[in-house]
TrEMBL record:
This is Propionyl-CoA carboxylase alpha chain, mitochondrial. GO terms for cellular component: mitochondrial matrix. Residues 43-490 form the Biotin carboxylation domain. Residues 162-359 form the ATP-grasp domain. Its cofactor is biotin. SMART domains: Biotin_carb_C. NCBIfam families: PRK08591.1 (NF006367). It comes from Iconisemion striatum. Residues 634-709 form the Lipoyl-binding domain. It catalyses: butanoyl-CoA + hydrogencarbonate + ATP = (2S)-ethylmalonyl-CoA + ADP + phosphate + H(+); propanoyl-CoA + hydrogencarbonate + ATP = (S)-methylmalonyl-CoA + ADP + phosphate + H(+). GO terms for molecular function: ATP binding; biotin binding; metal ion binding; propionyl-CoA carboxylase activity. Keywords: Acetylation, ATP-binding, Biotin, Ligase, Lipid degradation, Lipid metabolism, Magnesium, Manganese, Metal-binding, Mitochondrion, Nucleotide-binding, Phosphoprotein, Transit peptide. It is found in: Mitochondrion matrix. Its EC number is 6.4.1.3.
Amino acid sequence: MAALRACVSVNRLTLVIKYSSCRSCAVSSRTPYSTVTNPSEKTFDKILIANRGEIACRVIKTCKKMGIQTVAVHSDVDSSAVHVKMADEAVCVGPAPTSKSYLNMDTIMDAIRLTGAQAVHPGYGFLSENKEFAKRLAAECVTFIGPDTHAIQAMGDKIESKLIAKAANVNTIPGFDGVVKTAEDAVKIAQQIGYPVMIKASAGGGGKGMRIAWNDDETREGFRFSSQEAASSFGDDRLLIEKYIDNPRHIEIQVLADKHGNALWLNERECSIQRRNQKVVEEAPSTFLDADTRRVMGEQAVQLAKAVKYSSAGTVEFLVDSKKNFYFLEMNTRLQVEHPITECITGLDLVEQMIRIAKGYQLQQKQEDIPINGWAIESRVYAEDPYKSFGLPSIGRLSQYQEPLNLSSVRVDSGIEEGSDINIYYDPMISKLVTYGATRAEALARMEDALDNYVIRGVTHNIPLLREIITHPRFVSGDISTNFLPEVYPEGFKGHHLDEDRCRELLASAAALHVTSQLCSHKILGSQRVSPAPVDQNHWELCVALGQELHDMKITISGNSYTVDMDGGQVEVSGDWNLANPLLPLTINGTCRMLQCLSRESSGTIVLQYMGTLFKVRVLSKLTAELNSYMPEKVSEDTSSILRSPMPGTVVAMSVKPGDTVAEGQEICVIEAMKMQNSLTAVKQAKVKSVHCQPGETVGEGDLLVELE
């Protein structure tokens, strides 16, 4: 306890409150959800949040509205995290690895005793669906803000939950209703069910421990990886196998139940846009469901909740085929990541409801009181490289960070700030960006603006992918499924494709920015200096390079406006040209565009974010462009004979040694990042020349792992 007390910071002031009036997701005066505290309803004096990041901040926000003191727990690397600053008290519960901190029940129980917390909100992930943690809290008369241990156990085990769902007359997916013990057993069962099959962790969730297999070899491989991921993420390597519903939608029902037998369904969330079985973009309601299907799904979700005497907020997930047949997938006995969009369309604060229910109060609403008001969309903003398998983790420090809270009807749930570190120990989520509108079209337009106005520097992020998704014609029309990403981008995500008009807009903007920079450079603090640009020059002839293409252009300046003649067309660009602002609002041929300038170099190289994607443009004088044509081209590295790590992570397996001969597609090693295991394979048949890492070692993105002859 002495060591624990040394990590304690008591009675912290709230240094960061990340919600503003603009964050209200409001149309006119409507708020996205309300926390209306009834003074006669006594809940808790102090709640400990057994989590970190954005969900810890989200719970603290509602607790403050309800007049409840909060305790944050944190690892040593999270000592300056936003959730720690927001809480009234904070306790260090161990070093960075989750097994030694956020999953360490002993130190968390010590923190509860030390601070006198009366209740614990687990958030999502970590211990949120751990029945042993809930039992330990109950043994010490501390309230677990969630369902009881029976419901956690029943729904946390996918095998048991499926049997209970069948008994409750909930539609279920055909499959094997037992534990799969070996890889060969898995093959036999898969053959009996019929390919394709889904292999998944019995105790799993969040896309971890899940693999789709289309043949016997993939079943064996899927069994190995799924069991390893399940053991790493949940401490339980049991697996089940069921029929894979090809090309389905993933639609879930939010339920809310109290301890008095009352239960409601709070409409649905469409969660079909996924990569590696993890959600990327969600919306509420779904474009696909009609009122009757919604009602039947909601009623079946409530039947299941009542069957396990559920009491709290929970989510019943379904797969829905093209004919609107739906099948039970799993029940998450916790607050869901994407709960904000339900709050936006119903007006309910789900965290407040969980706290009230945990204290024993009845639900205040009836089923007929639950509305669908407007439309809400959530984009999960991750520190990931979307050009690698639609998102492999990226680490780094946020050197510049600016949320688009100046826009109306925008909500950002985040647990980071400028200067925060994104590391290999935890989920790489930066924030949940939510927009609300009276209609879906309005919500989508606001999401597009919010993504364009979101400033993130220091880490690679997935905004380019998010923006392409929400503006893609298939998504806009509602023609989506869980196979959306591989179908739309069969060769992988490549960024925004520039048509002729958009290309001219980008190049003209880069040229105008370059000229503005040159004209500004002749003064420093009001003093004259030598400049390559005459002060009164208003006509320029330049060459702008994008990739291998070179474009000649003539530029005429009039005040803050530029007329750019290029490629037989003319582009008018105007703006305030504040070079110190990371955002670059421009009017291009009468259309408002929001660009971002990430860097400007004296060589004329400019990196612009346009339509969500980063483009590297070079603006050159005529002479420089001519001389540049004589420069030798840099020879690209031959990547067929080397294997570099595509992401930061830990080597969990090395399958080869020097002298081995590997076939094309053969596994060389396995890298684990954020609890997800990634198998790296050979791109050709070759002999292993050298191995540069061993299992257990931490590697960075681009580190050399293996050389082939």
